Amino acid sequence: MENERREVVNSQQDLAAAANSHFKKTFSDNNSSIIEEQLNLLKVFPRLALDGDNLRMGLSVTLHEIEVVLKACAKEKSLGPDGWMVEFFIGFWDLIGTEVLELVKESRMRGSIYGALNSTFIALIPKVSKTSSFDDYRPISLCNFL
Questions:
Q1: Distances in Å between the alpha carbon of 79 and those of 4, 65, 142?
Q2: In whole angstroms, what is the distance from residue 96 CA to residue 101 CA?
Q3: Disulfide: which of 94, 97, 106, 121 matches 142 by Cβ 3.0-4.6 Å?
């Protein structure tokens, strides 16, 4: 595999450094924007949530709502970082549903999600048959279902 300087690297440490450098550069935003520009941009878009919608979003989440969402999810998809597909949650809902509900409620109260639940694995899919650099790969995210 080649790094950004087109040098061939093959040790685990050098490959990790090359991947880190490549994808950090690929996904970095060098154009920092100020909050005023962001607020002006928001004025251009239509309002998507009405006052009634905002009120409903502030209500407590119910066990039934979470179960309905689970059952509406696509089945037989890739495993998340936790190794589970949506079928696991549906199949064992009677055992884990209350704990999932408590997790959702706690996350809403804290205003954030625990890091382990917010993790994502990145898989690299080759774009060409013979790869030589990280430019030859397309990253995809394997997100944690919760």
A1: 32, 23, 7
A2: 9
A3: 121
